Amino acid sequence: MKTNWNNGIDYGFSTVRSMMWILGLWPLQNGVIYTIQWLVIFVIVSLTLINTLIEAFISCDAPRDGLETLRLTESCIHAWLNIIFPRIYMKKLAVNINSAVDDWLPSTKKELRVIMMGYARAGRLVALTQLIFGCLGGTLWFTSVFLVNKDKVATIENNTAWNFVIPSTCIYNGISYSTYKAIFVMQIIQGFLVLISECACDSFFFSITMHLCGQVELLRVQFIEVFRKRDGEKHCENIFGPVVRRHCQLIELNRNIEDAFNINILLRLLIISVVIAVSGVGIILSINRHDYKELIKMVTSINFFIIQAFLYTYAGDILQNQSESIFYAIYNSTWHEMSPTMVKDLIFIMMKMKIPFRISAGKFFYLARTTMTDILKTTLTYISFLQFTVNN
């Protein structure tokens, strides 16, 4: 584990590190105790996912909100994937974190630290926002469920169909109020871990990708400085060596992020599209029934999932744009005044940089601004199909 953790890296990753530590997923932590901690979290989240899937497919007479069950099932699947993939690729992610720690060394120039601070601020803002609003929404949900059930205690006893934080009406049918309270506390813990799993890994992906964006921008600055140095000196041999080696390091860091998150992102975006489509149909039905309370809930849910998808596409788009900016910076340099040998080296560098840094979703498509519009177009198609099916 790196020992030179300083104020710069702490500013960008302290919130994410705390959440990842709870889950046993922080890449710089290791040991038997830390592995056991992850196994316990994995078992709890897996049981939570099984609980929601059983509730979704089991047949019983208890009244259920199908859309609410679908949204909670999506959250549990997302949390379960977030527990699995970062753990599998923990060693690769540790390389990125160690590189970030080295980038924030006190010896780093002030002007370069200013550039990195801008990207660190974006990552910190997203992490804190997700955590605060997630905890607020979870607290309101837990409180509302508990208050609804408390009103049933005076009138109905053991045959009460209790409302649970995690849908379990069919599984725990006919339990007493004392048993319900014990299960309610257990499900609060499960809900908290699902919440942290969603917030932690999404924030970690965004923060580590934005830091890579900052490093790519610094590489562009280094290329510009190299050209200025060449203009001021008559004999400059192998001046591209340091920046080329740095570019190779950044390629490895980009590949690590790609390997760790591409499948997770694909599944996440596919599930988000389905949930948004179903919620869109729910909005149409709520308007027809004049159920404005349910309408507000649907709109809030859709906004949440759109923001989640936007975080992925925004980070991927910024990374690609910063990578392409290096190519154009080299092209706009005074390459025509260089020696034939240097021009030949520069051509090979541009050929390598012609392929920008990108994050894909399961190797099927890349995350960019157009990805967000494609998701919305696909979702609208689903909504039209589902509305036609419902009407007929």
TrEMBL record:
InterPro entries: 7tm6_olfct_rcpt. The chain crosses the membrane at residues 31-54, 125-148, 160-180, 192-212, 265-288, 295-315. One of its GO terms (molecular function) is olfactory receptor activity. It is found in: Cell membrane; Membrane. Coiled coil: none annotated. The keyword Membrane applies. It comes from the Eukaryota. It holds the Pfam family 7tm_6. One of its GO terms (cellular component) is plasma membrane. Its main location: membrane. GO terms for biological process: signal transduction. It is a multi-pass membrane protein. Keywords: Membrane, Olfaction, Receptor, Sensory transduction, Transducer, Transmembrane, Transmembrane helix. Belongs to the insect chemoreceptor superfamily. Heteromeric odorant receptor channel (TC 1.A.69) family. This is Odorant receptor. The gene is Or-193.
